[in-house]
Amino acid sequence: MTSLALEFTRPPAALLLEPPVRAALLEDLGRAGDITSELTIPAERFAAAKLVCRQPGRIAGLIAAEIAFRLAGPSLAFSVVLPDGSDAEAGAILATIEGSARSILTAERVALNFLGHLSGVATATVALVRAVEGTKARIVCTRKTLPGLRLVEKYAVRCGGGFNHRFGLDDAAMIKDNHIAAAGGIAAAVARLRASLGHMVKIELEVDNLAQLEEGLALGVDTILLDNMSLEHLRRAVAVTGGRAILEASGNVTLASVKAIADTGVDYISSGAITHSASNLDVGLDI
Q1: If we measure between CA atoms, which residue out of 252, 260, 253 comes closest to residue 231?
Q2: Over the range 212-238, which residues count as b (16 or more CB within 10 Å of their CB) and which as e?
């Protein structure tokens, strides 16, 4: 496999997405490479292929697919027809690839794995986003992502019109129930964070009742996550908070429930399902 400084239309995204795609190709090629393609297809054989959406959905992952094809065959010509973030109907052509038939087939499965999974994440996200239209609530993802794929899955959430929560344990402080228990209470946890954190790091507190909410508000935390609260408790939490903190609702968020949650007046609604339970969007490669 060739190691090159690749050029793409959106370099920052490509540079970030390249490592997981490269790792997936290395996993697929193993120790001997693509023995089927190399032994059955002449090296000089040219092919023209297209990526086709088999069912309607929101597209994400064409950047990852392009990286896979270019890593497998640097001279391949990859042309995007419907870019990431587009809505595609069944039968829509997403991109075309021309060049070495061997290289196209070597990258095919990795490209389709990323494209199908990420488009599934984007499709699940946009369904929630559309459901809360007309409210102020924003849909955000969580850290409930497949190991090694967090970056690309959070990219897909953005393609679906959602927003990203923290990317890891290091970019924001989030006090959860087990932190409260281990630290000796909410006040103790907040005090220790404030004693050491820089001024740019936000503090979010997860609460499961209104008494904890009021304690968090008194301590001046930046964001409060309302965990698995009823609609009535969410409405009361919004009224009690009165804009003193950002409110995020989480737990049991589905397409059927998300609009009612948004109508309570919360600022953000987080969903783990859009990443860990998204259905694969059926995309195929036709030569």
Answers
A1: 260
A2: bbebbbebebebbbbbebeeebbeebb
Clarify whether 206 is annotated catalytic. Answer: yes
Q: Do residue 49 and residue 15 come from a single domain?
A: yes
> Are 76 and 161 members of one domain?
no
What digits encode the pLDDT tens for the residues 122-169? 999 999 999 999 999 999 999 999 999 999 999 999 999 999 999 999
How many CB atoms within 10 Å of residue 47? Answer: 16
State the total domains in the chain. 2
Residue-wise DSSP of 238-253: HHHHTTSSEEEEESS-
Residue of 22, 144, 166, 235 marked catalytic? 144
* Angle at 264 (CA atoms; ends 263, 268), nearest 5 degrees: 85
- Residue 4 covered by a domain: no
Structural domain range at position 234: 130-276
From the candidates 18, 108, 204, 206, give the one annotated as an active-site residue.
206
User: Looking at the whole model, is its pTM more than 0.90?
Assistant: yes
Task: Respond yes or no: is residue 171 known to be catalytic.
Answer: no
Find the catalytic residue in 109, 130, 202, 236.
109
